[in-house]
Amino acid sequence: MYKITKKRFLAENIFLMDVEAPRVAKNCHPGQFVIVRLDEKGERIPLTVCDYDAEAGTVTIVVQMIGASTKMMAEYEEGEYLRDFTGPLGCKSELIDEPVEELKKKKILFVAGGLGTAPVYPQVKWLHGQGVEADCIIGARNKSLIILEEEMKAVAKNVYVATDDGSYGFHGNVNDKIKDLVNNEKKTYDLVIAIGPLIMMKFVSLLTKELGIKTVVSMNPIMVDGTGMCGACRLTVDGKVKFACVDGPEFDGHLVNFDEAIKRAQMYRTEEGRAVLREKEGATHHGCCGHCSD
Amino acid sequence: MEVDVLKRIPVREQDPKVRATNFEEVCLGYNVEEAMAEASRCLKCKNPQCQKGCPVNIDIPGFIREIEAGKMEDAFHVLSMYSALPAICGRVCPQESQCEAKCIRGIKGDAVSIGKLERFAADWARENGIRLQAAADKKGKKVAVIGSGPAGLTCAGELAKAGYDVTIFEALHEPGGVLVYGIPEFRLPKKSVVAAEIENVKSLGVRIETNVVIGKSTTVDELIHEEGFEAVFIGSGAGLPKFMGIPGENANGVFSANEFLTRNNLMKAYHEDYDTPIFHGKKVAVVGGGNVAMDAARTALRLGAEVHIVYRRGESELPARVEEVHHAKEEGIIFNLLTNPKEILVDENGWVRGMVCVEMELGEPDASGRRRPVEKAGSEFELALDTVVMSLGTSPNPLISSTTEGLEINGHQCIVASEENGQTTKAGVYAGGDAVTGAATVILAMGAGKAAAQGIDEFLSK
After folding, report:
1. Which of A166, B29, B113, B204 could join B160 via S-S bond, C-beta 3.0 to 4.6 A?
2. Which domains does chain A show, CATH number per domain?
3. How many CB pairs under 8 A join A and B?
């Protein structure tokens, strides 16, 4: 059993939780994820890690209420317990193994879409801790879905907020903002790390390919075990089959077959018991329910 | 009860038509009278060949003698000296090629139903609340066991009996490994049998920590250097699924047998109360011919599908147990033998709509000694399907080997370990089961777990 030590809502249907999981907290790195199960009958839900504190033994997760399970999870309060909490899963971000001196030479842009801001945060925070600067675009449909802006400002060099409806910050989607930065502000970047809905990562990757900027994306397909056992999370990267849970979740965005990934993400949308999923489909969520991805 | 010494007492089973629609156990087992009658068929050989056929060397005439005398608790205690999981072994061991294959009674008539008797004694003990006792003499030494499948449970049980302080680390949320995620409920009931035998191992003093993925949550080296474990046994199984590499394999509706079975068995997707979904196909092909393929096929059948086994060799080459093939046929599984998939056909939404197959014929024997299947030119045909389950075998997960300093693996990702005592290339680290051999059987994994427990005991007694 894993105790919830803190819970707060970041947006109407996005919440954050600190959970006591000392083993995970001790070994966690940016780029990794966890799997949570609420109760005996629950699904294994892959969730985004937003932060971790080895000393306190806690892991911070950010969850968007999108499926039945994540809605049920939102009912859990501080002091209550999650039945299962496994991780850290997946590979750490490649940045972690690069020499800091090399990283300092790079101009890095993070592109965070909606809930994708949560997994971007620990990467930017880690870089900041190493003295490496990075810019970050946070995009969402509207102002109410922008999360972790203040936290991000504390660790990123520049934070650019973009909303589709123009209710806050730049009026346009993240791709419009990338173009704005490159064309109008004459910014140059050597590396883009884009995390968000599949459709966003697809179009960011198409744009950065044109612009000739290496791009890393974080994939969040359907998973069951999260340890390489089931192959549900398989995707094609550069013509080869990869398992997101053990080979990823981060891959070269220019090599990922997004169209296949988008089709695979639909798999359980029309299933019985997925009514909630059908009924309410946010434009931005990331790895929150394990059964939807854009 | 009348006994014809040449014929085994038949075991009661659920009617095939009925069981094809439920997940209840197929085989109902012997009652006391039937078990005692079957036990009376045993010749109690002075030099029991059956025992030599058993990977954990169970004193088979010994426990059968107790059943015949009606001393069921004693029968269970005889079994428990050799195996921590008799109710499981009695159900899933391939007895026909092990103990029962060597039974002297079997030369002229039917071999004694050793497996069914083992199961009976274990079930009787459980139903009558017989529990194993923790060792009285503690050694005060900590041993870590990675994986709670048959190898890990056996190794842990043996070490606990010898007085070691044993902790099992399990990656999933539920202990049992393949017994829980792989083998279906209708062959091996999870709550009444698997969970109960795991409770027995716990009653020996073994602790189980779930949700610990060794290689991620912690490492073998950390267990040794930071957590004070003096020896480690790796019984992490062979969990990585294989795919064929044919076109269309990433379509929706194509599953590894591991995924299909895990959703059903571990996550209980067949149960309406549980949250994990599974796609209920109407026409399913399971590619492969092993026990796992039979399990996947019979699961799909119970979910309401017409099910085809597609296997590239012939019936006599099927690697599955005869009993499993027999049960599958009884339930109405269609066998497309000497048939090999070439391509999975995909509809405009990315879902499976069929599979192009080619007929095969058997040519010269290959390296495995089995006749090599070769394609019959121009024999391609299409099977209309909505689901394909790939059951082509599994290989060990590299998570542990890649994060453990000095642990050697072979070209198949299998950990290199001594067959005799499980010793790996790293001091204090032992391994056994599918992690070492690649996918094999429950009982071979148990045998390896037992051998490694002896190896660890010798190592820590030095």
Report:
1. B204
2. 2-89 (2.40.30.10), 94-217 (3.40.50.80), 219-294 (no CATH)
3. 117
Is residue B378 packed enough to be buried (19+ CB in 10 Å), middle (13-18) or exposed (0-12)?
A: exposed
In terms of Cα–Cα distance, which of B176, B203, B204, B200 is closest to B190?
Answer: B176
B-interface mutation test, from A35, A225, A257, A291, most B Cβ less than 10 A away:
A225
Residues across chain A: 294
Q: Nearest by CB to A86, which of B211, B240, B249?
A: B211
What ipTM was assigned to the predicted interfaces of this complex?
Answer: 0.89
Q: Rounded to two decimals, what is the model's pTM?
A: 0.91
- Peptide bond preceding A249: is omega within 30 degrees of 0, i.e. cis? yes
Collect all residues of chain B within an 8 Å Cβ-Cβ radius of residue A23. 212, 217-218
How far, in Å, CA of A249 to CA of A228, rounded?
12
pLDDT digits (tens, 9 = 90+) for B303-358: 999 999 999 999 999 999 998 999 999 999 999 999 999 999 998 888 899 999 99
Among B204, B189, B349, CA closest to B268: B189
| Digit-coded pLDDT (tens) for A15-31 | 999 999 999 999 999 99
Cβ within 8 Å, pair B213-A87: yes
Q: State both tokens at A250.
A: 């981060």
E strands, B103-246, where? 142-146, 165-169, 207-209, 231-234, 240-241
List CB contacts of B177: < 8 A, sequence separation 6 or more. B147, B148, B149, B150, B152, B170, B235, B237
> Which residues are within 8 A (CB) of B381 and not within 5 positions of it... i.e. 6 or more apart?
B356, B357, B358, B359
